[in-house]
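Bumping with the actual sequence this time:
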Amino acid sequence: MGKSQKVTDDSNETGFTARYESYGTIFGGKILSYIDEIAAIAAMKHSKKVVVTASIDTVNFISSAKTGDILPLEAVVIATGKTSIEVYVKVESEDLLKETKTLTTTSFLTMVAKDELGKPITVQKVVLETDEDRNLFAEARTRKQHRLNKSSNQHGRDGIIDAGTNRNTN
């Protein structure tokens, strides 16, 4: 069984010469890009395979990162399915001059491991070591069911529903 993979990136790459909004804060889309990248790294370390992003289930922008802040990111594999890997990502904003750290963003992503031909491939199960691991794993089941329900609502019985008419296209 595979141990839960925790990946932290405190490199300067996340410290920024990025595009900022007019209020001196970083664009949310730039943070999403970093979240997706570190989630993929955590999933690849766990699966030892190439992964693709299947979904970004939630993104919570809790506070803003200011110009000049360092953004440490942390990604943890919290659950696995047959071919999927759920990753929790936490982003903080660190002001080096004030010596403060603030939680800015949290997110849950689902990645899918692929083989050399691009086909989904079975991944090792995650080992739950702490009560927090077990709680996140239990919550992952709820998120997975929500994704499945949402997917079935977006697709008709035999195909995709036309968004304009709410009718099945097949």
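The tokens above came from a reply further down the thread. Residues 131-154 form the longest helix (24 residues).
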